[in-house]
Design brief:
5-stranded mixed β-barrel
Amino acid sequence: MLRSYTLLLCLLLLGGCASVPDTLRPVSETALLPFADAGVVSPPAEARWGGEIAAVRNQAQGSEIEVVQFQLNASGRPLKSDASAGRFRIRIPGFIDPVIYANGRLVTALGNFTGMEQGKVDAQPYSFPILETESVHLWPEIKDPPERCDCDPFFHSPFMMRPIIVVPARD
């Protein structure tokens, strides 16, 4: 009996570690369109794609985010790497602030793949898959730890003093 409670507790704790945000949770995980199949499958199809923001454009009919695609982990966060399957565009009704949705930030969107659109990356022609959605999940930035760590647990206590080291003078 105790073993089953322990197993249940472990499963609940581990399940909470890899949860997908509610805005990224689809009706059926198996029905999601993989990014690699975007040029082959005819729209509409539900998809969850993510990556790094390359550009943000606000237009009269809504906003558009150009994203460099990366694979997603179990919780839907993009995993940056040196390999990408390409780029895609996310279309959102309304305004998004380009300062908040800055280049280099990670995003994930759940929406409908609506087709391909011709465009350019710099001067090169490119065919962009289009993902239309109501919301985009902007992942918090992960800050690097400080290089110098003043982590001594004893000398920052009000009850401890730094040792005084006396060095004899040379003759």
